[in-house]
Specification:
Layout lengths: L11 E6 L4 E8 L23 E5 L10 H9 L3 E5 L8 E2 L11 H20 L5 E6 L1 H12 L48 E5 L10 H22 L1 E3 H4 L4 E3 H13 L11 H7 L3 E7 L7 H8 L6 E7 L1 H4 L13 H17 L6 E2 L1
Parallel strand pairs: 3-4, 3-6, 6-7, 7-10, 10-11, 11-12
Antiparallel strand pairs: 1-2, 2-4, 2-5, 8-9
Helix pairs in contact: 1-10, 2-3, 3-7, 4-6
Length: about 350
């Protein structure tokens, strides 16, 4: 079998730096700016809007460099394509010291890292381009959670909805104290984060064991028990050595295992109710299932999407016939040309609709 040519590193676009010393580089390729000036150069003229921006969020244990080829294919379709590692993976580093510094979970990624990354992107690219999250596997799950929590600013007055109940339900988790979470504007008064215009999820699904059926579900339930126990004893999950999920802090695996058992998204230490937030999501969502995907079968995707009944949903099933090569949970990213075309068409059409579309199937 012919191996694909190596793909060069993407240029650095910006870096998000958090108060605890965590650095999250954002790499990518910018779409050309649209021509908006009269031929005489006398002033601005009406013209096309700026190209949509797509930020790729990786799967658990997968470095952002894995998506270089796909990012270039998105860029070839006229998009600004960006990638960023999840905390502790790839280029993402934390300069904080001590055992506790490496024991983050979903809360840190959703409530600290993603707001910082998106704020850095907006500072670099400006407020005008439509901004979409494209998440693979765990990246897709957390992208939906983030988009559900984040709301675009209303004038200069802050977020459209937060824990105070203004513009939406109270998102504070009744089981967590209201002292708040530092470093990201998250606390008892609500959540702040730059808003996004929509979400694409690829090879993504809930990991609730019952969504995997009677044959595979019990095995997944046993697997999470073993992973949780191993991470508790070692302080981390050595997934690279053991063949699942890459090396992870025990906090990430603890939150993952809770969702396996309960089917609900709840992050340890968070004052926010992720499940309630998901139920309010009314943004456009493109959900792409992948042929021969054992990690995110259609039933798992169905369970995840059932949490977002208000989303303006488009679904697509990516097949080997469409891509010209055998697919699985990861192989789609090596043959993403057809998917890149679909994402670009969807994002561009969504920008033209300006939020006026209805759910559909493709």
């Amino acid at each position: 079998m012919t191996q694909p040519e190596p793909v060069a590193a993407l240029p650095l676009v910006t870096t998000a730096e958090l108060p605890d010393g965590t650095c999250l580089p954002v790499r990518g390729l910018r779409a050309p700016a649209p021509e908006r000036f009269l031929p005489s150069g006398s002033g601005p003229a009406p013209g096309p809007p700026p190209a949509p921006v797509v930020l790729v969020l990786p799967a658990m244990g997968t470095p952002a460099r894995f998506y270089r080829r796909f990012a270039r294919q998105l860029h070839d379709e006229g998009l600004t394509a960006l990638t960023a590692d999840l905390r502790g993976q790839g280029e993402a580093t934390s300069r904080a010291t001590g055992r506790a510094a490496g024991d983050h979970g979903y809360r840190a990624i959703v409530e600290e890292d993603l707001p910082a990354v998106l704020a850095a992107i907006r500072a670099e690219l400006g407020p005008e381009p439509p901004l979409y999250l494209l998440g693979h596997s765990l990246g897709g799950q957390l992208a939906l959670v983030y988009a559900s929590l984040a709301r675009k600013a209303v004038g200069a007055g802050g977020s459209e909805f937060g824990g105070s109940g203004v513009g939406g339900p109270d998102l504070r988790d009744a089981g967590v104290g209201g002292s708040g979470v530092g470093g990201s504007g998250v606390g008892g008064s609500g959540f702040w984060g730059p808003g996004v215009d929509g979400v694409v999820i690829v090879a993504t699904g809930s990991v609730w064991f019952r969504a995997f059926g009677a044959l595979r579900g019990p095995g997944l339930l046993l697997t999470q028990l073993l992973i949780t126990a191993t991470a508790a004893v070692l302080g981390r999950w050595p997934g690279t050595r053991l063949g699942f999920g890459g090396d992870q802090p025990r906090g990430v695996m603890r939150d993952w295992a809770r969702q396996v058992r309960t089917g609900r998204y709840r992050a340890r230490g968070s004052a926010l109710d992720y499940e309630t937030a998901l139920g309010t999501l009314d943004l456009p969502v493109l959900a792409v299932s992948v042929e021969r995907d054992a990690y995110a079968p259609v039933g798992a995707l169905d369970h995840l999407l059932a949490k977002t009944p208000r989303a303006r949903l488009t679904r697509h099933h990516l097949t080997a016939r469409e891509t010209g090569t055998r697919l699985d949970h990861f192989a789609w990213a090596r043959a993403g040309g057809a998917l890149a075309k679909r994402v670009a068409a969807w994002a561009t059409a969504d920008g033209r609709r300006a939020g006026g579309c209805r759910a559909g199937e493709s």
